[in-house]
Amino acid sequence: MNLPEDRKTVVMVVDDAIDSIRMVNDALEAAGMTVLVALEGNQALTISQNITPDVVLMDALMPHMDGFETCRRLKENPAFTDVPIIFMTGLSDTEHVVMGLNAGGVDYVTKPINTTEMLARMDVHLTNARMTRSARSALDTAGQNLFAVDRGGNLLWSTPQVSRCLPDANHPEYERIQGKLEEWLGHRLEPGHMMPLRIMDTPRSVEYLALVDGREYLLRLKTPQNQNSAAAALRERFQLTLRESDVLLWIANGKTNREIGEILDMSPRTVNKHLEQVFRKLGVENRTAAAAGAIKLLATL
Questions:
Q1: Are 10 and 53 in contact (CB under 8 A)?
Q2: Which residue in 57, 65, 96, 276 is deepest, having the highest Cβ count within 10 Å?
Q3: In the CATH hierarchy, which fold is given to the domain comprising 225-298?
Q4: What CA–CA distance (Å, rounded) separates 177 from 205?
Q5: Which residue would you say has higher pLDDT here, 143 or 183?
Q6: 4-aspartylphosphate is carried by which residues (predicted)?
Q7: What does the alpha-carbon distance between residue 65 and residue 243 come to, in Å, rounded to a whole number?
Q8: pLDDT confidence band for 165 (50 / 70 / 90)
Q9: The pTM is what?
Q10: Are 36 and 24 in contact, with CB atoms under 8 Å apart?
Q11: What is the pLDDT of residues 69-110, one digit of tens each?
Q12: Topology (CATH) of 5-138
């Protein structure tokens, strides 16, 4: 597991037992890794504000803040989404193993530590984490600003670009955005539906893509430039006026005439008149067919 100097793995070891830290530290440094040491949970949280390690070795039982709570607090930081946390514990009963995994840990090793086994387990989890980060970075490079939330609007994972746009769990904005997402996901959404959402004083929109494994709502974060490009694409493809393209875009987002009128500052009657022209130019008879045609085009952008 020796790595070149410019690719050293950074490991944060969180343990209040000096003898245990010394043994683990020696094994990690011999493997060519950089070691950060925290003697208790709060110190680990302080380190995490400035440095994101590649992996964390976490003692389960510590004074003041145990390893389970420390793990949960670390995982509230979006930067730690893909950082594997491995528990070190003298406890082998099922209850504490489950507590560690539920807190966000990926694995555990029992004390006294078998350093050969520990390094082998770290290698597996580091490889998986790097593959995941690489995939998400590739999505960012391709302009796919994706993230996933649960039914309650809680963030499960995000690509790096989205992580930089969203507030962390301790920010006052987080709860408001979470509530908006929870309410929106309560509707019967179809792929392509979008919701305007102001995030950190920046107007954006969220596009619903799919429900994965019955629990992860896959979403795409869009900027106003994305929305302008979408309207321009509709306008060019179907020879629409500016207002007609705006109406069609919001129809594709699942909005009613009344809601579109409020967004575009026009009466529902005016919206309906624009919609009649949209139907004619698209060669369709109803809003469902118009939305389907728009979503199909927008999916190619």
A1: yes
A2: 57
A3: Arc Repressor Mutant, subunit A (1.10.10)
A4: 12
A5: 183
A6: 59
A7: 57
A8: confident
A9: 0.57
A10: no
A11: 999 999 988 788 889 999 988 766 677 778 888 999 999 998
A12: Rossmann fold (3.40.50)
Residue whose C-alpha is closest to residue 241's, from 250, 253, 232: 232
The one-character DSSP state at 197 is E
For 180-282, where are the E strands, in sequence order?
194-199, 202-212, 216-222
* CATH for 143-222 (3.30.450.20, 3.60.15.10, 3.30.360.10, 3.40.50.1470): 3.30.450.20
Tell me the CA end-to-end span of the chain in Å, nearest whole number: 42
**Which residue reads 């929106």 in tokens?**
184
In 4-119, DSSP assigns E strands to: 10-14, 34-38, 55-59, 85-89, 107-110
The two tokens of residue 43 are 């110190």
CA distance 12 to 77: 15
| Size (the chain), residues | 301
8 A C-beta contact, residue 71 and residue 48:
no
